[in-house]
Design a protein that fits this description.
Structural class of chain A: alpha/beta
Oligomer: homodimer
Distance between the termini of chain A: 30 Å
Radius of gyration of chain A: 23 Å
CATH architecture of the largest domain in chain A: 3-Layer(aba) Sandwich
Number of domains of chain A: 2
Helix content of chain A: 40-55%
Largest interface: A-B, 59 and 60 residues
Strand content of chain A: 15-25%
Low-confidence stretches of chain A: 1-10
Strand order of the largest sheet of chain A: 10-7-13-12-14-15
Shape of chain A: globular
């Protein structure tokens, strides 16, 4: 397997990697061979949970894409077209979205060939993943922006060199807004003066705003992030990078199916992004709450639970089967408790007794090290 | 009708308005009268399009909420509970979301009464609207944050006094991220040094990022906003405020049902927010594109159209009936053209010939004043 860490190609810059791919295809043609490139299978059977590293990644199964193959030639040609466009974007130093790429392809291929082969955007996405895996890089490295979501506040600075002018953004001086986390947090950007004891990831923007208003991050010396629900690629990647700086990562979500999913996606990665698991998963992350076991400790929460939905219950049952979850007895207890009591708890409920109680809750959890694994 | 502009109550601060409401209720009780307050009906029949001002607003129909009334007493009591909580938030100087308010009510009412009357969040929303209308203010003035969405870049500064410390954010130095537009753009916040010729509102964040990377706002001296799809309350309000500063507002969306809806919501307001139409609608806004008439001018776009969905076609038919749309022959032409050709056009298609073509398109439209009304 071309592990994401041991691949010699990783030392090359993305543009050179694309050129190497192009040259190898041209060589194949020159020597009368069937043009091909190798990628790693992203089929379900090749997505594994790696016990040792603690995240979802691709296994060893390789797949060859060849041109002279009735089943593959269209896809092969499309991938080459995507690679050529990305090479152009890198040369121009310009970024676009997958939708922008789609229209560039539709525009230029429409001139050379009769039928438009990129009639639907869904066709282009797997091709980009093919390239990401074959070249051991992320689409952001190919100047393709993914959807972004999430904001951050705390004592750190961002040096953003993306425009003509380098700017320094002080994330401790962003008022009620916070710094909007971009799609690409790796290229032409630096994070400096990170002066924090830990990172707190808060599922809901409303709670982030509550904590930000209380200057929680300043008092606690924390980096305060909200992914605004499920974390986008850029936010997952940034959390990984902050963990790499040695900061503990604490995740604070609802105690329901969606909240748990947000946590486990940050921690172990996801099926869809298993091919870049090493870049986006943060197995060191810990779950701070809210948990159903909080009901034993904070009496008032018992009157603030709400009814678990059928989706919550179904999902809890499924999670009991995941090997990376069922090995933790604390999580088995949580899941079984929801299934038994049919109750769930939202993080917003902590605002019941007073708007600032949520601050106290988090501080208690952290100082007592009361985390779920 | 208590017009949003002529209401003498508007001169009072929100806290005093709530106190006046409370005092009048107490007076009613003291003199043996049935406690009551007056609001404006938000029923469909009382939502009107005001030709003169050019936006959707409430009509004159008033509604009385009284306590001694089997159909209303529960709602009346709930509204008073909401008012009391908001008064507390204002005294504390703290903000929360409607969800936070819901849990505060659930927590405190649960102590005094047997059954929890706020079992569902949907119950609290109409009560808050009742208060907003009765007091002629917005929920943001009651320290209730709404969902926020949208970013901005351009030559202007934000002075945000919400935290302990006043911060100045330079929206021309926010790199790839932009300044995240908050829920409340009225209280403890100022917009200064606004040095722009116009405001460009771009439906999609991906296009905003494209234009931001090109330093479009710097070259054109524009304020570049994306609402990221449908504009949130804060973004609509900010657009209104920028228009009040004398800046032309140009809106740039897809040429499909969703894009048109985004435009018309910014321009005329919406049914749901008709009760604050004066604060969030911007009738001065003009539509820059993309339009189906662009197909006649930019030949290449003809191969980049996509099939209109049934929803697009149904919605186009409906829009032909709206009095504020059907009066413009240019819009009737657009709508009829979609219905006839069953084609739509995305703003991303402008990236077909080159990633920077979108810059040229906008500049041409503006310098030729080619807008739809």
């Amino acid at each position: 397997m071309a592990s994401q860490n041991n691949n010699p190609k990783q030392e090359l810059d993305p543009k050179s990697k694309l050129e190497m791919l192009g040259k190898s295809i041209v060589e194949d043609i020159k020597y009368g061979k069937n043009p091909k490139f190798v990628t790693i299978a992203r089929t379900r059977s090749n997505i594994i949970y790696d016990q040792k590293s603690g995240f979802l990644k691709l296994g060893k199964a390789q797949e060859e894409r060849t041109f002279i193959n009735v089943a593959q030639s269209k896809r092969f040609m499309q991938t080459m077209a995507v690679a050529a466009k990305c090479h152009k974007f890198l040369k121009e130093g310009l970024h676009t979205s997958i939708r922008g790429l789609f229209y560039q392809l539709k525009y230029s291929l429409g001139e050379d060939i009769d039928e438009s082969i990129f009639s639907e955007q869904s066709e282009s996405n797997p091709l980009i993943e093919d390239l990401e895996v074959a070249l051991s890089l992320k689409r952001e490295d190919l100047n393709l922006n993914a959807n972004r979501k999430g904001v951050l506040a705390g004592k750190m600075k961002v040096i953003d060199k993306s425009g003509g002018e380098e700017v320094t953004i002080d994330c401790s001086k962003m008022g009620r807004s916070g710094w909007a986390i971009p799609s690409d947090v790796d290229n032409n950007i630096e994070f400096v003066d990170v002066k924090a004891n830990y990172v707190l990831v808060v599922e809901k923007d409303a709670l982030w705003q509550r904590l930000n208003e209380d200057n929680f991050w300043k008092k606690e010396n924390a980096i305060l992030i909200t992914p605004v629900g499920q974390a986008a690629r850029g936010t997952r990647r940034l959390i990984r990078k902050l963990a790499d700086m040695g900061l503990p990562i604490y995740v604070f979500t609802d105690s329901d199916a969606w909240g748990w999913y947000i946590y486990w996606t940050i921690k172990t990665g996801s099926i869809n992004l298993a091919y870049i698991g090493n870049d986006v998963a943060t197995p060191e992350a810990k779950f701070i709450g809210v948990s159903l076991s909080d009901l034993d400790r904070y009496e008032f929460l018992n009157k603030l639970t709400i009814k678990a939905s059928d989706i919550d219950l179904k999902r809890a049952q499924e999670m009991l089967n995941y090997e990376w979850i069922k090995k933790h007895k604390e999580w088995v207890n949580e899941l079984e408790r929801m299934i038994k009591t049919k109750k769930k708890l939202e993080q917003d409920a902590l605002q019941g007794p007073s708007l600032t109680f949520v601050d106290q809750y988090i501080k208690e959890k952290i100082s007592n090290k009361e985390f779920l694994p």
